[in-house]
Task: structure prediction
Amino acid sequence: MKLLSITCMLIFAASTAFAQTSRSKQIADWERAKVFTKEYLDAMPEDGYAFKPTPEIRSFAQQMGHLADANFAFVSGATGKKSPMEGSVEKMTDQSKAAITKGVMDSYDFAISSLKSMTDADLGKDIKLFGMDMKSGVALEKGFEHQTHHRGQATVYIRLKGVTPPKEKLF
Result:
């Protein structure tokens, strides 16, 4: 009986430690992603911001702008906070390294500050995002997954410009 009790406590502790929806974990993940994304933005030379591997896909600047636009949209939808971005980072007239970097970093600042103003209970609230019913925490996780996907695509752009991309930051 004592062994069963200890086993149950260990399982509970492990499941709590690996919970994916805690606010503190999400804040830490978004802060890490901000630093990692900034390294990508810094790694691409200025002339690479207009680079398109093929004519029909986004330029590096548009790719990173799309990442920022989605950060604003997912976080705004998940939290109910109005996005501070008017318009689109992806479609800004100024696609320079400085302008895109500012737009992308602003999107992470919005995500992080919004998360810091929430509680763990807020992550369990029902919301509608892009016409789908889900929990606020799930929407934030999907936003995080989206930015990871597009940053990963940017690796190819950076490599095609002859630059070594930043090393992975899993922790």
Notes: Strands lie at 126-129, 132-135. The first helix runs from residue 2 to 17. Confidence is low (pLDDT under 50) at residues 7-20. The domain at 19-160 is CATH 1.20.120.450 (Four Helix Bundle (Hemerythrin (Met), subunit A)).
